[in-house]
Please model this.
Amino acid sequence: MRKPRLWDVKDVPRLTRLVGRPKPTPALLADTVRPSAEEKRIYRLPVFTAPFCQALLQELEHFEQSDMPKGRPNTMNNYGVLLHELGLDEPLVTPLRERFLQPLMALLYPDCGGGWLDSHRAFVVKYAPGQDRELGCHYDNAELTINVALGKAFTGGALYFGGLFQAPSALARPLEVAHVVGQGILHRGGQLHGARPLGTGERWNLVIWLRASAVRNRLCPMCCRTPDLVDDEGFGDGFTREEPTTVDLCVLT
Ligand SMILES: O=C(O)CCC(=O)C(=O)O
Ligand SMILES: [Fe+2]
Model:
């Protein structure tokens, strides 16, 4: 029998039904993914169980209290944890991306590299009194993003979404999306968004910036130019010098 790992993807509940299905059927998806705002292409889906969220929060707090060296999640958030610094990239985030998110994203966002995800930047953002309380409007360095609420108990902090940042008046009619612990919000990285101020309590969210080198190698999603690459470690910012191998398609489907 395989020894269970501390962080096993079996903790991802209903999505496990997608395992082994290279192409989830629309009927299966309809039961798994609820469109939160069809025209904005924002979706909500269950990702983690409540006990898993609690265990992860505990681990994050232990790490926060330790004197291990820590980087910042991104240029906007001052508090939180990079998942690779916790050693959770390989056992948790990579299988989540490859086995669960990839087939889903391929169906929901085929035009944004959903079928070509090959790296990620995963971090937890933290909002608390006396620390960060809100997040300004921005777009992500990602083709696609999943944002999962982990807890704890809090009020406020809803996400708001506009259109793609390149569009004129992209923030004209923002859509507010409340957090539900254990559930994830899917959106396009280039979609303008931010977080309303925290009311009370502490909010921790797992954010995974999903990247498709096949898309970003052609056009950097941040500067909208052909990327001028420099070497980096690990996934870097998700660009590659070599194109990922092509996928053959059946002409009859
Ligand atoms: O506060 C949040 O949950 C949103 C975080 C976010 O959009 C980001 O870090 O890119
Ligand atoms: Fe973001």
Notes: Residues 126 and 193 are 17 Å apart (CA to CA). Helices lie at 26-32, 50-65, 89-108, 213-216. Residues 74, 77, 125, 135, 140, 147, 159, 193, 195, 205, 207 surround 2-oxoglutaric acid (ligand 1) (CB under 6 Å). The chain has one domain: 29-217.
